[in-house]
Amino acid sequence: MIKNTDQYLIDKILDGDTKAFGELVERYQNFVYTIAIRILKVTEEAEEVAQDSFIKAYDSLSSFRGDSKFSTWLYRIVYHKSLDMIKMNSRHTTYQIIEEITDDALDHIENGLECMLSEERTSIIKKCIGLLPEDEAAIISLYYFEEQSVKEIAKVTGLTADNIKIKLYRSRKKLFSLLAGYIKPEILNRNGKAI
User: Fold this and answer.
1) HEC states along 104-155?
2) 180 in helix, strand or coil?
3) CA distances from 14 to 5, 49, 52, 74, 122 (A)
4) Which pTM does this prediction carry?
5) Residue-level pLDDT at 90
6) What gap in Å lies between CA 157 and CA 68, rounded to an integer?
7) What integer is the mean pLDDT of 112-134?
């Protein structure tokens, strides 16, 4: 077995090497936190969920069967822990109704994004993702930032692949609608005229 693969580290942990778990934590801590913060949008809660997720992963490691990648299994834990945190806090966020956006408008928004500097673009996209409902923000983050496939996201969320595709489509439309507020002024400033 190749050293330092997830399965190699899992086998070491199950054989009693607790230091190997530290390597898994180091490997996935940024990803775990990213999923938690996208869903919860509160730093302290995301940190707590990340910590609780690693504890649960450690305690449940013997039940990991390897049917999916370890990262998918871990992300599923984070996803459900995050939803549990929301339920526990009974926090209901209200969202502005986002009107339907046309394909032509999507093209203008994409062109506007291309005009922006990479760092600025990433910051605005992350900010807008934070305005999406928790489940949609998580799915968008898993798909685009964590590069998970639709099939992997379905395993994480417990939804069907078709549901994930529908949610991705709707979430992208909402995201583009939110981005439009940032992009139109950007295009105006750079070109000196409205789109």
Assistant:
1) HHHHHHHHHHHHCCHHHHHHHHHHHHCCCCHHHHHHHHHHHHCCCCHHHHHH
2) helix
3) 14, 23, 19, 16, 39
4) 0.59
5) 55
6) 13
7) 69
Cα–Cα distance between 150 and 134 in angstroms, integer? 18
Q: What is the largest CA-CA distance in the chain?
A: 66
Query: Position of tokens 């039940």?
Result: 63
pLDDT in tens, 151-173: 988 888 888 999 999 999 998 88
Amino acid at 63: S
Structure tokens at 1: 């077995």
Please provide the distance, in angstroms rounded to a whole number, between the alpha carbons at the two ends of the chain. Answer: 57
For helices 70-89 and 6-14, angle between their N-to-C axes, nearest 10 degrees: 70
Cα 147–Cα 72–Cα 54 angle in degrees, nearest 5: 115
